[in-house]
Amino acid sequence: MTEEKLVINGTFILALLGALSWLPQIISWIHSLLAKPKLRFVPEDTTEIGYSSFGPILNQSFAISTSKKDALIEKVTLTLIHESGAKHDLSWRILDERGPEITSPTGSWAEVRKNQPAIALKISILGLTEKKIGFQDLNYQMKFLPYLSGYQRKDSYLQNTEGPNYAEKLIKSQEFLDVTDYIKKGFYWIEGKYDAILSVYESSRRKPHVENYEFELNKIDIEQLEKNIQVTQDKWKDSVFYKGKDFKEWPVRIWNWINPAFHRTTK
């Protein structure tokens, strides 16, 4: 072999060894590029269920983690399937984060909580994220809109035509009765077991991440929740008779909440 060929071969081998030294880094880049976040939602052992002006509500606290890659969550839904077969789809609307505890000069303390609209949520591989997710039934709210629009038109008309008799006329109107009737008919919590299917839509995944849970409502739970129908109807009456007044003058109306056990299933 000539000296020139030896130099060329030696140069080639050195270049090849140099390229191979980059191979682990290249593989790591490709793996990072192709990797998908692996999510895990760990629920608090109880949930919070209610019924209000927003309709059926379920609030659930989770400790959320991701491995392999940071995750950008764009939507979370909760499908509830009662043992009777009744099915309802709830969507995240509120994210509630625990803040610091503050102590007053008298020694009492309170926990500061931060509420924000549920638009997107970034989860890092570096640690757990704790959030309470507020789920609401958007279908319930969409069906309510025509009644709300009719009520608002009637409200505006009577304010302009009835003067002092405005409030009494409004709560006796068909449009107001349609609103309060929908509040009663829209209540769908019933006694029995519910499957809760959590679907998490992450920006880099084609299919949602799915986890399964269940909870059960008993007769006392339903009785407590049904009281919220009247509370919600009374709130609407208050919005008529106390319109324009300071909220301190409004009657105190308290919605009832229940906290059944909430746990993971293997379905």
For the record, what CATH class applies? Mainly Beta
One letter per element, helices H and strands E, the order comes to HEEEEEEEEHHHEEHE
What's the gyration radius in Å? 28 Å
Tally of discrete structural domains:
1
- Shape field: elongated
- Architecture per CATH nomenclature, i.e. the level-2 architecture: Sandwich
Content of β-strand:
35-45%
For the record, what is the CATH homologous superfamily label? Immunoglobulins
- What would the CATH topology be? Immunoglobulin-like
Number of strands: 11
How far the N terminus sits from the C terminus, by CA atoms, comes to 70 Å
Pairing-aware structural class of the strands and helices? alpha+beta
Set out the fold topology:
Blueprint: H1 3-34, E1 38-43, E2 48-52, E3 55-67, E4 71-82, E5 87-103, E6 109-117, E7 121-123, E8 129-136, H2 138-161, H3 166-171, H4 174-185, E9 192-202, E10 209-217, H5 219-241, E11 263-264
Antiparallel strand pairs: 1-3, 2-3, 3-8, 4-5, 4-7, 4-9, 5-6, 5-8, 9-10, 10-11
Helix pairs in contact: 2-4, 4-5
Any overview of this molecule?
This protein is of the alpha+beta class. The protein has one domain (38-144, 167-264): Immunoglobulins (Immunoglobulin-like, Sandwich), CATH 2.60.40. The chain is 36% helix and 36% strand. It has helices at residues 3-34, 138-161, 166-171, 174-185, 219-241, and strands at 38-43, 48-52, 55-67, 71-82, 87-103, 109-117, 121-123, 129-136, 192-202, 209-217, 263-264. Strands 1, 2, 3, 4, 5, 6, 7, 8, 9, 10 and 11 form an eleven-stranded antiparallel sheet that branches. A hairpin with a 5-residue loop joins strand 5 (87-103) and strand 6 (109-117). Helix 4 packs antiparallel against helix 5. The termini are far apart. Residues 26-31 and 108-112 have low confidence and may be disordered.
